[in-house]
Known about the structure:
By secondary structure, the chain is of the alpha/beta class.
Amino acid sequence: MNKKHAPEFSYLYYEQILSSIKINFDTCLFSQALQVLKNKHDKPVIFLRHDIDLDLEKAMVVANIENRYNIKSCYMIMTKCPFYSLQDESSKSILKDLIQMGNEIGLHFDFTNSAERERNTVISDIEKHISNECEILENVISQKVKSISFHRPLQQFLRGPLEVTDRINAYSSELMKWYLSDSKGVWREGEPIQFLENPQKPLLQLLTHPIWWGNEHQTPNDRLQSFFENKTQNLSQELVKKFDEAMSSHLSIYRSKKTE
Ligand SMILES: [Zn+2]
């Protein structure tokens, strides 16, 4: 097949991903996972997931594109993100719109402090913490949170149990048998459309981070640079410094003009 693909990480390319999903897969939400895993399917199934690490507004852009393809997906939301607040009316309105479009809202869980992250934590140690975070999100969206994903998951969290606190764990072994992700703005396995056009396994989980996407292709470092410039333009020097530090500790990748 001699198809020309748009540059990766442009919305045009994302639309090509969606077109390919439409043709080759049945789309499912994590809330349906128990049923989906039990049943036999004619077509391979896909769980489409978005981890919202930085920018809730970009989640809405992606959702609007998906909506044109009548594709529903799972948006994993942080409760204590340094870059968006669930208490803002604008955030509440985005979450409401995402739900109205038929999407699922899950928890994107992060540790509260880096010491916690460094400990040899296993999932069962943090179940209470996860439940509490889900409750915070549930209070905002006025419905049950049925799925979770981990922000920068510890190695021992990968391929864990299917359910954690009675919610579907996106990092469960059942849902990770075939997994494609744009983590750090790179498709580690190579560009995804080649795999979507020729599914080799019955169940795929595809993870994207809307922060890496835009009208034009950009490197992830440049995306972070744009995000930084956009969000700090009206801040005092002191707040800019704090914002910068928060970005560096939140992600394992830096904006392009960060020198130290
Ligand atoms: Zn994350």
